[in-house]
Structure to design on (407 residues):
């Protein structure tokens, strides 16, 4: 049984976290430096941005995780440390600071940065904040919450979640924090996300679980179809739950995958709901596709459509934009079989049957679409495969936020 619990990244055994303001950001009330520290060396895995322009922290973290182990993650907000001549030096310097203040070898440190691209990042504020950062570490929910706050950029709310599950007869836990409400639509993960678990699992199987999960979680999320240079999703497994180590795709492995997906899907919804300038969460559920690939292509295309996103903002049941997005999705489908409906807490509105429009009341349609969470249900009528994708509406505020993001 999978059960939602509190504690975020500190819910699993063996993890502490914290966050402070060190001075990277000018606003002194905003935390800008986070640390997650494990009591033991952990099996670890990561997935990263597919952008050819990669932040220096991404390159350093990939090297540090090449052996499948890590023990800490240090993250700053306010500066992406990307496209800087000394970027690698700074990223490695941040890891060295963790070693100096905690004893964790620099090679076992995950490092990530988020913020403005192309601005130099100094190690001075990070070094100056390390003592306070280590002192802030806590094994309870307060530590996770502080870390979640410290990695935020244009996010308006913190994103953290945790679940418990059973593996090998032992209670295990998995928790996470994430940030990112813009530049979200890669083929990997989205934003920054740090997952912890006390499950005992080999690095190889942990990597397999993470790589498979992103196909149906973060790869199905879009805010604006821009791929960040710094996207990083990492998971550390302490093994302190006491279950027999998972080394194959057995039932315990499948139990972990189910719990992991609970965490990542919950974060996807949080990230989409908090998309830059967004007022509505959009969830597109596709059924009846010939293949999993077709289902994913169709669902993702709908939530990526700027015209559909704008229509949802305007509470306009312009279902033709759904069909348009399906038509250029690349999915193998028969237009004459497509059904579309909008479902929210304010009502259910079928708008298309067999590729043709259905009559509906415009006032009722506006009422249905006035909800802050909109479900778009698509039936392709071609098979048995399903997929879900998450996005948000496109508003005036998105342009305002990004019009002066750097300045």
């Amino acid at each position: 049984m999978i059960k939602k619990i509190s504690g975020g990244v500190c819910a699993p055994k063996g993890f502490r976290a914290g966050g402070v303001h060190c001075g990277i950001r000018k606003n002194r009330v905003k935390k800008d430096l986070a640390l997650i520290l494990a009591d033991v060396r952990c099996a670890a895995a990561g997935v990263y941005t597919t952008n050819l322009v990669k932040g220096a922290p991404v390159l350093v973290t990939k090297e540090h995780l090449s052996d499948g182990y890590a023990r800490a993650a240090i993250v700053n907000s306010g500066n992406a440390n990307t496209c800087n001549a000394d970027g690698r030096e700074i990223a490695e310097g941040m890891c060295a600071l963790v070693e100096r203040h905690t004893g964790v070898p620099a090679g076992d440190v995950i490092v990530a940065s988020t913020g403005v691209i192309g601005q130099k990042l100094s190690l001075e504020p990070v070094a100056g904040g390390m003592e306070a950062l280590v002192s802030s570490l806590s094994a309870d929910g307060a530590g996770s919450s502080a870390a979640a706050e410290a990695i935020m950029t244009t996010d308006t709310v913190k994103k953290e979640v945790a679940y418990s599950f059973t593996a090998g007869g032992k209670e295990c836990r998995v928790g996470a924090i994430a940030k990112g409400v813009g530049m979200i639509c890669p083929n990997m993960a989205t934003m920054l996300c740090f997952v912890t678990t006390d499950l005992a699992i080999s690095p190889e199987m942990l990597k397999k679980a993470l790589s498979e999960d992103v196909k149906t979680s973060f790869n199905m999320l879009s805010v604006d179809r821009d791929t960040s240079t710094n996207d990083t999703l990492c998971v550390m497994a302490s093994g302190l739950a006491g279950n027999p180590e998972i080394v194959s795709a057995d039932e315990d492995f499948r139990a972990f995958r189910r719990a992991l997906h609970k965490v990542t899907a919950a974060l996807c919804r949080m990230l989409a709901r908090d998309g830059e300038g967004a007022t509505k969460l959009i969830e597109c559920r596709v059924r009846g596709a010939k293949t999993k690939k077709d289902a994913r292509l169709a669902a993702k295309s709908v939530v990526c459509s700027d015209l559909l996103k704008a229509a949802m903002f305007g509470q306009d049941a312009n279902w033709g934009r759904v069909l348009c997005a399906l038509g250029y999705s690349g999915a193998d489908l028969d237009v004459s079989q497509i059904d579309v409906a909008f479902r929210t807490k304010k009502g259910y509105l079928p708008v298309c049957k067999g590729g043709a429009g259905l009559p509906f009341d415009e006032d009722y349609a506006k009422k249905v679409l006035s909800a802050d969470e909109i479900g778009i249900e698509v039936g392709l009528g071609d098979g048995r495969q399903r997929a879900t994708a998450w996005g948000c509406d496109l508003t005036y505020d998105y342009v305002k936020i990004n019009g002066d993001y750097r300045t």
Remarks:
- The longest helix spans residues 251-273.
- The radius of gyration is 21 Å.
- Residues 186-190 have pLDDT under 50 and may be disordered.
